[in-house]
Write a structure and sequence with these properties.
The complex is a heterodimer of chains A (218) and B (267). Chain A is an all-alpha fold and 218 residues long. In chain A, α1 runs antiparallel to α7, α2 crosses α4 and α6 packs antiparallel against α8. The longest helix of chain A is centred in the N-terminal third of the chain and has 40 residues. By secondary structure, chain B is an alpha/beta fold. Chain B folds into two domains: 127 residues, Periplasmic binding protein-like II (D-Maltodextrin-Binding Protein, domain 2), CATH 3.40.190.10; 88 residues, D-Maltodextrin-Binding Protein, domain 2 (3-Layer(aba) Sandwich). Chain B has a five-stranded mixed beta sheet with strand order 11-10-12-9-13, with helices on both faces. The radius of gyration of chain B is 22 Å and the shape is globular. The N and C termini of chain B lie far apart (71 Å). The chains are: A mainly alpha (218), B alpha/beta (267). Chains A and B meet through α7 of A and α3, β11 and α6 of B.
């Protein structure tokens, strides 16, 4: 099997530009997803079940439908409503953030609920209100537990950003497909794309492990 | 537990072997060879999906050709880019999908003699001031990736120009135009004219530019060295001569085909 390195070199500038966009989409998705996910996670845990319902519905919808479908709906339905036209990158960031927020919310809920009841009881018996107890005692402890599953979600998000290629956002897979279309070859574009994603996800994994080690107090 | 697992394994083996036996005997009694034909059924009126069935001008032509040459057709709807990959590595025997015969494609594939004459045209909103291909400079144009539309535009504005948005399906490209993400779509004249006519509410118009977009001829596409090409070249000429082609053409396009022009392309 002959590998045509010349076409990989030819498309390298486009693939690298695509990698920058993938990083951009992923970072934006992670940041907005975390902010929104935090709010939704807290909303899910409201003791009044009626107030908590919209948050539960949000999580149910965005976890229960394919990200691919969400991207198509956001790009061809939602974004034109507000902007008057489609925009692949804006739609990509919105879809990735909304989707990721649902998973972050569940990770938050899992982290908080894994803290022993004794902590909340002790905090309340010391005179802290429920909100104060969450803010000063429970959430700080929960965050450390959330780092591994959050890291996992971020790695998944980097890979999920590849779906944005379908709305013609020029990220990694978009250019890999352009290479395939031009030269009718499959291994060169897709192995190169896979390698680029691997570089991104492995770097993130190392970074996360470093953060975990630094935060370990025991 | 072990006995249960063993008996399940034995059952699976028996079923697998009997299935193999079945397929062997059924192919032995077949008189017509079945050929696998790929098409990208998102290109009305040539090939498109209607309630789960693939229909269109190309489908009718394919069935007529198969009848003339004694083959049974197994038509499969597949993405445009995967279609080229499948024919190249012989997962499919051939493809019919409004594929223009080009020198570049002919390096990797074999083509039949032409069976349709087409030209690319520009689809724009009614109030657009685009009047020619040159006017597309600096504007966002949506195309289906890997088509001659992309080829001509890249020839005019540069390879991988960021204003040329490549979509996997022509239908998605048109959606982007309708939703305002692109200023124009370039695709085959029949396709864009049909779309504009059938969707008056979308308020689109078609711009012709024969200087920028040359005449193109569709061909059946085969892997290099395929033995089917000779059979289908003969079949195409047969349906030109016996009126079948004209009947199909009139059914879909309500006008007479220029068979002389198509035949003249057969060097």
């Amino acid at each position: 099997m002959d590998i045509r390195f010349d076409i990989i070199i030819e498309y390298l500038p486009y693939l690298l530009k695509g990698t920058l966009l993938t990083i951009g989409l992923s970072v934006a998705g992670i940041l907005f997803g975390m902010l929104l996910g935090l709010l939704i996670g807290l909303g899910e845990m409201i003791r009044n079940k009626i107030l908590a319902l919209p948050f539960l519905c949000y999580v149910g919808f965005f976890r229960g439908t394919p990200l691919f479908v969400q991207i198509l709906i956001v790009n061809f339905g939602a974004v034109p409503l507000f902007l008057g036209k489609t925009n692949g990158i804006v739609a990509g960031v919105i879809a990735l953030s909304l989707n990721s927020a649902a998973y972050v919310a569940e990770i938050l809920r899992g982290g908080v609920q894994s803290i022993e009841k004794g902590q909340m009881e002790a905090a309340r018996s010391l005179g802290l209100s429920h909100v104060q107890a969450m803010r000063y005692v429970i959430l700080p402890q929960a965050f450390k537990r959330m780092i591994p599953p959050l890291g996992n979600e971020f790695i998944v998000l980097i890979k999920d950003s590849s779906l944005v290629s379908v709305i013609a956002a020029p990220e990694i897979v978009y250019w890999a497909q352009a290479m395939e279309t031009q030269y009718y070859r499959v291994w060169e574009p897709y192995l190169t794309a896979a390698f680029l994603y691997l570089v991104l996800t492995l770097s993130l994994s190392f970074l996360l492990r470093f953060i975990e080690r630094r935060l370990a107090t025991e | 537990m072990k006995k249960f697992a063993a008996s399940v394994l034995a059952l699976i083996l028996v079923l697998a072997l009997s299935a193999c036996g079945l397929s062997k005997t059924s192919s032995g009694t077949e008189t017509k060879k079945t050929i696998k034909v790929d098409t990208n059924a998102a290109y009305a009126p040539f090939e498109y999906m209607d309630k789960g069935q693939i229909i269109g001008f190309d489908v009718d032509v394919m069935n007529a050709l198969a009848k003339e040459s004694g083959y049974r057709v197994q038509l499969k709807n597949i993405g445009w880019d995967p279609l080229f990959v499948e024919v190249k590595n012989k997962s499919a025997d051939m493809a019919i999908s409004s594929i223009t015969i080009t020198k570049e494609r002919a390096q990797t594939y074999d083509f039949s003699v032409p069976y349709f004459l087409s030209t690319n045209e520009i689809l724009v909103p009614e109030k657009s001031d685009i009047k020619s291909a040159a006017d597309l400079k600096g504007k966002t144009v949506a195309v289906q990736s890997g088509t001659t539309a992309q080829e001509v535009l890249e020839g005019l504005f540069g390879k991988n120009n960021k204003n040329i948005k490549k979509f996997k399906q022509n239908t998605t490209a048109i959606m982007d135009l309708v939703e305002g993400g692109s200023d124009a779509v370039v695709a085959d004249n029949t396709v864009v004219e049909e779309y504009a006519k059938n969707n008056p509410d979308k308020k689109l118009k078609v711009i012709k530019d024969t200087k920028a977009f040359p005449a193109e001829y569709y061909g059946l596409m085969f892997p290099k060295g395929s033995k089917l090409k000779a059979d289908f070249d003969k079949a195409i000429n047969k349906i030109y001569d016996n009126g079948t082609y004209t009947k199909i053409y009139k059914k879909w396009f309500k006008t007479e085909p220029d068979i002389q022009k198509l035949k003249a392309q057969q060097k």
